[in-house]
Design goal:
Blueprint (H helix, E strand, L loop, with lengths): L2 E7 L4 H16 L10 E7 L5 E2 L2 E2 L9 H13 L3 H5 L2 E9 L3 E3 L2 H9 L4 E14 L2 E13 L5 E14 L2 E9 L1 H9 L1
Parallel strand pairs: 1-2, 5-10
Antiparallel strand pairs: 3-4, 5-6, 7-8, 8-9, 9-10
């Protein structure tokens, strides 16, 4: 059973410690063939008063926001068509790519692009997977789409995967893959 010990300053909340424990477990399992329950992660906290680096006392940095929560909040705002709220999650250099190599940098362009593809769309989420990626966290969102084609005909169970890059708490990139074209082609035949 692999065991990882992490020493950190006191001050991180329960959610941050739980995220750290899960991330350490996942990191170990990417190298060692162990079941999740076989990986032991021990978080040892020390008082900030007992921590010095470079001969000076330090305070803990705030935890980074949970990338999956950022993505989920963004997608919820988009589903509600609250573009102002959705824009608050985006980095200034945000870019997105949709099937057919449709590239956009503004959410208003996405709404206009989507109008010719479907009248309405809703996402059902199966899961969000987070992977560390250096300065950027990568979030994969898996699920299905349902809604109406432009002529009002309903569609459902269309698979999708969205890939997001999160840096400094903001969405920098979004890539979208889905079976819309395949589903629409089968519906029209």
């Amino acid at each position: 059973m692999p065991m990882v010990t992490v020493t950190l300053m006191e001050g991180y909340d329960e959610e941050a410690r739980a995220r750290l424990g899960k991330a350490m477990t996942d990191a170990v399992r990417s190298v060692v063939p162990a079941a999740p329950e076989a990986v032991i992660v021990v978080l040892q906290e020390i008082p900030a008063a007992n921590y010095m680096r470079g001969g000076e006392r330090r305070t803990p940095a705030p935890p980074l926001p949970d990338p999956a929560k950022i993505v989920r909040a963004f997608l919820d705002a988009m589903q509600e068509r609250d573009l102002d709220r959705a824009c608050a999650f985006l980095a200034p250099d945000f870019a997105m790519t949709f099937p057919g190599d449709a590239r956009m940098t503004r959410l208003e362009d996405l709404v206009a692009f989507s109008a010719s593809r479907y009248r309405s769309v809703r996402k059902t989420y199966e899961r969000f997977d987070v992977a560390p990626g250096g300065e950027r966290a990568i979030v994969y969102c898996f699920g299905t789409l349902s809604g109406e084609w432009p002529d009002g005909t309903p569609f459902s169970d269309v698979r999708f995967i969205d890939r997001f890059e999160i840096e400094k708490g903001a969405i920098v990139r979004q890539q979208v893959w889905n079976d819309i074209a395949d589903t629409k082609g089968r519906a029209g035949s």
